[in-house]
Structures are given as structure tokens and as C-alpha cells.
Amino acid sequence: MSQLVDQFGRQIRYVRLSVTDRCDLRCFYCMPRGFRDFEEPEHWLTFDEIERVIRAFTELGTRMVRLTGGEPLVRKGLPGLAARLAALPRLDDLSLSTNATRLARHAEELKQAGVGRINVSLDTLRPERFRDITGGKLEKVLDGLMAARDAGLAPVKINMVVMKGINDDEVEDMVAFCLEHGFTLRFIETMPVGDTGREAADHYVPLDEIRQRLAEHYRLIPAHMPGGGPARYEQIEGTDLRLGFITPMSRHFCDTCNRVRLSVDGTLYMCLGQEHSYPLRPLLRSGCSDGELRQALREAIDLKPRKHEFNERPEQVIRFMSMTGG
Ligand SMILES: C[S@@+](CC[C@H](N)C(=O)[O-])C[C@H]1O[C@@H](n2cnc3c(N)ncnc32)[C@H](O)[C@@H]1O
Ligand code: SF4
Fold first, then answer.
1. CA distance 123 to 160
2. Fewer CB within 10 Å, N or C, the chain?
3. What pLDDT digit, counting tens, does each position of 31-87 carry?
4. Omega prior to 155 cis, within 30 of 0
5. Is the Cβ atom of 201 under 6 angstroms away from ligand 1?
6. pTM, 2 dp
7. What is d(CA 137, CA 140) in angstroms, rounded to the nearest whole number?
């Protein structure tokens, strides 16, 4: 069967699957405090529908799925969905992005279900600052992280959105924390996604600055990370600690973008930084055949734009990150 290749020759190998737009935190750069305008439950793709779409993707060459959200562990029965997806014969890699507040309860179950790699958002190690940034409790996240490590979910990668005047003074502390616990650390540049992201853009720091600062304390050597995606990795010499730099703003990686995003309402988004999308839910609920579904995926991929325009048109994306699935 032909593969999913877009107009610019990029093959789609990776789906980011947002299983909910809800979240138990309110990171200020992602979702507004008090926000409640969520998708209606009758619009959520069911687990049967999700499995069907992902199966169709795998028949067209997709090999990796990342469960995300909103907070994916807020969706009831997520480990069950993970097990169903992990059992798809052509899927090689099932991973999860989470804020870890509920991970202590679910880590073991997720491991059993077939989830491998796991990314945890953590921007600060200071409880009060954590509350300011997210509205939640740091302790739960730390418990979740340790549970993930103990359950053998590996590697555990920590994603830190680095923001000037908010948490950029904690980069060295985060390095020490990850060294101590054997986590990988990835730094992310703030993106102008939704009004929240645009407000946070005032705190934008180009990651070259952070890298230079770290290079004053540590010797950094190039490193490779399987499934590393858009991050550029370096390693602190003499340690196992890998540092990833994700630079959508200062150095974009659109030329090698191999992913699309499926939101909980069944909309397929072609790019995090553009509005190009394709609604799959009406088709799924109209009793389409598998062939029609695959044809729809091909049509959707034809819409994938060449690149994001975060720098040229920062006002472009009105939806919040929690809706698309970061
Ligand atoms: C939308 S969250 C969804 C998964 C999960 N709730 C979590 O926090 O990991 C995925 C990632 O998007 C990142 N993110 C959200 N808004 C962002 C923004 N405006 N700029 C950069 N990263 C952002 C978060 O820090 C997180 O690492
Ligand atoms: S970044 Fe993740 S944890 Fe934070 S509000 Fe967005 S979806 Fe929730």
C-alpha cells in the first residue's frame, strides 16, 4: 500500500494523539486559568474510533504514536487504550507525554500496556513556583516521576519550557536533579500558540543562551537519542545525562517534520503552528469503509504546509496547545 508522503516529500511516520483537551493543571503558557470551554463528550473520538484511525495510519507507514493531551491520564481507561494501540502489528513505538500528576497511580499499568518512552513536563523544582506556573502541587509530579522510573518506563525525559524571569535561574538545578535520578532533560523554547502562548512569549529565551551557560560549567559532547524527534542532543561528558534542545523559534526543524496531530474531536492538524486541518469525525461516523478512511488520510496529508510561521505570523494559531496536543 502506498505510504503517506506530503507535497514536500516528507513521509508521515508519527502521530501525536490527543486523547482529551482537559487537564488537571493550568500551565499559564498553555491554558488560561479558569478555562472550562472543553470539547463535548459526544464529540470525543471513542477508543474504537481512535484504534481504527491509528490502524489506518499504520497501514500507510506510520510507526510511532505519542499519547498526549491536555493531560492524557485524565481520560478514563487510558491504559486500556494504550494496550489496544500497542497491540497493532505495525506500530513500533508507543509513548506518552504527561504532567505526571496521576502517574504514581498508573505507571505500572502503562508499562504493562506497552508504553515505552515517557515525557514529563516539569518547569521548576520549587513548590511555590510550581504552583504559580501550573496551579498544582509539585509533590504529586515528583511521586509520579519516581513511580515511572521504578516501573521501568524508559527513558524518562523531562521537558522544561525555559522562560526568562520565570524559571531560567533553575536550569543548573534541573541538570543536577536529572543527573541524580537518571532522567534525560530537554529544554523547550516558548511558542506563541494561543493567547496564553503569546503572553508567555514575553519570556522567550533562545536556547543557544542556555547552552552557552551550561557549556561554562560542563563539557558538552554530541549525543544521539533514539526517537529523539526534533531535539538536538548533547551529553555531559563523563555522565549518562543527555540534554535535548528543542528550538522551534530560533532554529526550526520543519524540513524533517514527519508528524501530524489528531485532536480528541477527530480533527487532524497538519502543523502545530498553522491552522491546516481535516475533520475525520464526520467521516468515521458516516460508516465509511477502510479504503475511504485511508483515502481521507492521504487527502489530509496533501494539506500539510511547508513550515510553521511562529516568527513571521505569531498571531496565526488561535487554539491552545492543550487542544492540539503538544
Ligand atoms: C500541551 S502538553 C500535553 C501533555 C501533558 N499535559 C504535558 O504537560 O506534558 C505537551 C507539551 O507542550 C508544552 N507546551 C504547552 N504550551 C506551550 C507553549 N506555549 N510553548 C512551548 N511549549 C508548550 C508543555 O510544556 C508540554 O511539554
Ligand atoms: S502543558 Fe500539559 S499540564 Fe500544562 S496545562 Fe497544558 S496540557 Fe496541562
1. 5
2. N
3. 988 888 899 999 999 999 999 999 999 999 999 999 999 999 999 999 999 999 999
4. yes
5. no
6. 0.94
7. 6
